[in-house]
Amino acid sequence: xxxxxxxxxxxxxxxxxxxxxxxxxxxxxxxxxxxxxxxxxxxxxxxxxxxxxxxxxxxxxxxxxxxxxxxxxxxxxxxxxxxxxxxxxxxxxxxxxxxxxxxxxxxxxxxxxxxxxxxxxxxxxxxxxxxxxxxxxxxxxxxxxxxxxxxxxxxxxxxxxxxxxxxxxx
Length: 170
Hints:
Helices cover about 15% and strands about 45% of the residues. It has 2 helices and 14 strands, in the order αββββββββββαββββ.
């Protein structure tokens, strides 16, 4: 009986070490400040400012072991569902602040030997029903990523999106 338990614990430790490494998710958000404020004059001659509704820019990257078959499908950002477009960025991914040239640049993704993909949220009319566990995470996490890995649905969660310095339009 002791031999069986010893073999079980040995196999358990080997299996747990042999599991593939998970995906690492990077998420950044940058406010876009409008340039010149738009205004309009109504029929009574009063001038009203038109609020600029420029959505924040999202920069989302995933890092995974090379050779791992990952197909990003959907992403929820602050509970809102988006489709995804993917591309391969040139590393390192660095963000410079043109408003403050003396400020040190932000490195979004550094050099790595792993595979990196940039995910661009696309506001299509996407319909997808997440798993029950993912639905629960939508209320407590700012980013929930849905991928297909070897034909299986996988979800990755990120509690907070890192906020970058805003960029101003002219």
